[in-house]
Amino acid sequence: MMAATGSRWLFGHSYGGLIALHAALRQPPAGLAVFDPGVSIGGSFPAAWLPAFTRLVERGRHTTAMTMFLKETGLTPLGRAPTFVYRALAYMLLHGSDGADTRAMMPTTPREIGEVVRLDSDGRRYAAIRCPTLLLGAGQSPAYLTGVLPRLAELIPGARYEIVPELDHNAPDLNAPDTVAAHLAAFLR
């Protein structure tokens, strides 16, 4: 993307954050920012549900798979709601205005989560990143996403991290892009 666009700055969200960190290891950008990166350090990313989820996706059982994904990842503010609540949300996500896109992306999720698990480490590889780095986390996101940020900030020279209490995992693209953009703009300055 950097070569195609001529950009010297790199931003990644969730799994894109993992990709951005690894891209910065290969070719350091002028600056790097990640939001709730899908990074696992010392087994921090919970993925015991992945084999069952993968089977459901492969069988085309999208609503059941999405129900499992929403419940197991904790990426919604539903907490310990009963399964039928997650199932109703899954149905709405899969059949709402963006439902076709959501269903089309579901087959990529097992590979993405599998890559997060495969790249699990003690995190020391990220110490080789040599560019200004902002590690942003959402205060409403699960601890497995935000909990790695202090460790990454220790490892990446000159990195800083910030948890934005009012944001959730979908802030960059759905719920608060202006707030995330303001944090990025301050970092770029």
From TrEMBL:
Signal peptide: none annotated. Residues 8-182 form the AB hydrolase-1 domain. InterPro entries: AB_hydrolase_1 (IPR000073), AB_hydrolase_fold (IPR029058). Transmembrane segments: none annotated. This is AB hydrolase-1 domain-containing protein.
